[in-house]
Amino acid sequence: MRQIIIRTLLLALAWIILWRVAGIMEYAPHASIWFPPAGLTFAAFLVMSWRAFPAILLGSIVTTLWVSDLYGDQTPVNELLVTGLIFGVAHTAPYFLGAWLLRSKLLRLGSHGLSSTIMAFLGIAALSSFCAAWLGTEVMVAGNLLQAEALWYTWLPWWIGDLSGVIVLTPIFIALVSWRYPQIERWLGGLKFTEGGGSWSSFSTKLLIIVIMLAVCLVISMFSSYEEAAFLVFFLILPLLWVSYTESPLKTAIALAVFSTITAFSIGLLGLMDYAIVYQFAVTVIASTAWFGLTVPALVAHNQYLTHQVSQDGLTSAASREHFMQQADLLLKMARRRNKPISVIMFDLDKFKAINDTYGHIVGDSALVEITNAVNAQLRESDVLGRFGGDEFMILLPDTDQSGAVGVAHKLREGISKIVIPSLAERLSCSFGVAQVSKDEHIMVAVDRADRALLQAKRNGRDRIEKDAV
Length: 470
Description:
Elements: H1 2-24, E1 26-28, E2 31-32, H2 36-48, H3 53-70, H4 77-109, H5 114-142, H6 151-180, H7 200-223, H8 237-246, H9 249-269, H10 276-293, H11 295-311, H12 321-337, E3 342-349, H13 352-359, H14 361-378, E4 384-389, E5 392-398, H15 402-417, E6 430-436, H16 443-459, E7 465-467
Helix pairs in contact: 1-2, 1-3, 2-4, 2-6, 3-4, 4-5, 5-6, 6-9, 6-10, 7-8, 7-9, 8-10, 9-10, 13-14, 14-15
C-alpha cells in the first residue's frame, strides 16, 4: 500500500512539474507550444492502466487551483475543487480510452506489426488529444476559467499542443519504464526501446546537426521580414528522418524530444510567438514523419525476407521453381542477343524413395542438402541451380553448349559419388539429362527434352548421363 501511495504521489508530482514547464511555453491563455503532461498521461495509462487515475486526477486538481491563482480568479475554493475534478476526468478519460484501445490493438499485432503500431499510435493519439482538448476547454468555460468567446480560438492550439506532447514524449516515457520493466516490449508491436546498434558518437553528431539547423531556421525567422520564413523549420524533417532511418527507436525519441524542447523554449526567447501555431504544427508533423521513418528499415527487411522465401527453396537454398524460370527467361534473352549457347541439366537422386522409407525423411533431407552443396561447389557464379520439387533439380548453364553441359554433368556425378552421410549405408548417386536450348525455342521445351533424357538415364540403369538427341 505504501509503495502505491509513493508511486501515485511521484506520478502526480511529475505531472505537475511538467504542467508548470508547459506554462513557461504558454503563448495564449491555456495554450502552450506543446503540453508534456499529455504525453505522461498517455504513457501512464498505457503502462499502468486504471491505476494511473488517482495521480493524474490529483495533478489536475492541484493545477486547477494554481491556474486560478495565476490568473487572479476569485472563484471559491470548493468550486475550484469541483472544476479541477471535472477537468481531471475530461483530461484523463480520452487518454485512458485511447491507451486501452491502443494496447488492445498492439496485443493482437504481436511482434510483427511495427508499421501498424506507428499508424495506430498516431491515429489514436490525435483522436484522444482532440477529445481531451475539446472537453478541457468546455470545462474551463463552465468553471469560469476561460471566456466563452475564447473557446473557438483556444481549443485548436490546445489540441495541437496536447498532440505534440503525446507524439513526442509518450515514447520517451515508455522507454524509461521499459528499461525497468522489459516485459512491456512484448505488446509494443515490434517497437523496441533497447539501445540497439550504432555508436552514441555518431548519433551525437547527427543531433548536433539537427540543433544547428534548427538554430539557423529560428534565427532567420527572427530577423526576416517575411512571415514565410517561419516555415523553414519544416526542413528539419530531413535530418530527423535520417536519424529514424539509421538509429534505434530510443535515439529517435531522444532526438525528437531535444528538437521539440529547444523549439518550444526558443519561440518565447526569440520573440516568435506570432508564429507559435506554425511551430506547433511543425513539431507534430516532423515527429509523426520521424516515427513513420522507423518503419522503412523494418519494411525493407520484411520485403527482403519475403523475397528470400519466394526465390529460394527452404531446405536446400537452391532457387525455387518460379525464381528459376524467371532467371531462365532473362538469361535466355541475353544469350540470344549475344548469340551465345545456353544449356540445361536436369537431375535427381537415385532411389530417393527407398532412402526415405528405409532411413527416414531426416536422412533423405540431409542427402538433398549435401547434394546441393556439392553441386554448388562445382558451378560458376553465372549458373543457376533450382529445385523443382522432391529430389528433382535443374541447372541452367549460360555460355555452354550441349557438349560443355555434359562435361559439367560428369563433374557433378563424380562429386556426388564422394558424399558421405554417416547414417546412410548406400553410396549416393544421381541420374542426369542434358539438353541445349535451340534457337527461338521456349525454355520449357528444352526442360522437357532434358527431362526425357533424364528418364532415359533412369531406364538405362541410373547413375549415368544422357543427352538429348536433338
